[in-house]
Amino acid sequence: MSDQTPSVALNQNQRRHFEVLFARLEDSVSKIERLLFHPDQAARLSLIEDDVSPAFRTLAASELPRIRAEIERLIAMLSLKPRAVSLRRTIGATLTTEAVRLEDSFSSHLRGYGSVDETVAHALDPALDALAGSLRTLSASLTR
Asked: What pLDDT is stored for residue 47 in this prediction?
């Protein structure tokens, strides 16, 4: 640390807070970079309307690396440690969350959106159930 960098004393809880804060900020910067410079062309129901001005894109191309550098500087200044994130647990949680979202869309849960035609229960519920089952099968195979 240079003589001009102030020393910052953090307790363990505060340290964990900043580790999570900066990890999430890194994730957000990565997401913005992907959206701006490497958009996903495979999505069918999430079509990104590229309404970002060239001026913003140019500014982001210079600012995002500066933001990353500042995050790195603060990580070093605060002596923050990376936290290990289990890929297995992250994927498992994502699969389970999506399975629950599908199950929450069964016909019996749609009444809040208006009357539900019986075709929803007969045609859509089984398809949603099969998708949720596939997600749960993938999730369960992670624990093996």
From this structure: 84
